[in-house]
Amino acid sequence: MSVDFATLLSAAEEAPEDRRGEWLRKIRDAFVTGSANISESEIERFDRLMTQVLDATPLLERVTFAKAVAKSPRLPQRLRKRLLSDNSMVAAPIIEHAHLTDDEIIRIIDINSEAVCLSIARREPLSDHITDLLIGTSHPKVLLALARNIEATLSPSGFEILSDVAVNDVEMDDALSARPDLPPEIARKLTRALEKRTRQRLTAMMERDLSRTRRPFVLR
Q1: What does pLDDT average to in each consecutive run of 10 residues of the chain (220 residues)?
Q2: Predicted TM-score (pTM) of this structure
Q3: Which residues contact 42 (CB under 8 A, 6 or more apart)?
Q4: CA 155 to CA 62: how far, in whole Å?
Q5: 150/161 Cα distance (integer angstroms)
Q6: H or E element, residue 65
Q7: Whose CA is closest to 157, among 137, 129, 198?
């Protein structure tokens, strides 16, 4: 594997511009399938080469590349930073899947960007420190993604805030109710909210039928 990857790197470095994309795709696939067997010196060459050529690579190819390498534990740091600084479509799979520390994730969080926060909210796993920061952004899609992500640890205060949303939001109610780590007191709160919504719905149905001088549907 080591010799093959070195050969691919040399071929890509020497290839004319109109054939470089073809070699880069081969390098990408070889890295994804065999990164564990690639030497450190070849990882460095891969890092240097890809960082240099990404600027001249079409957007869709950069997106495809990012999706392919995002989960690799050997994705070089410089290349990872380069992808994170790219177009949001390129950065998204890196934000969502790349091996990042909490400190790195904190630096990525942009409270004004729902898209960035949403990608982070889908990461597996997530610490309660990160989920608290994301909940603080109040982006509706981010809150729902966190509730649905059972690998995201929610703090007691995080559960409380999401359950407040769930009182009037059926999707959030369903997402929280499906979590295996749902605290009993939050489960009781959601049950009371469901009972309240049911009573309100039945009352509305009765008032509707009475306004039409019909026998209420719920009494038939």
Answers
A1: 76 83 88 92 94 88 95 95 95 97 96 96 97 98 98 98 94 95 95 80 71 60
A2: 0.83
A3: 2, 5, 6, 9
A4: 36
A5: 16
A6: helix 59-69
A7: 129
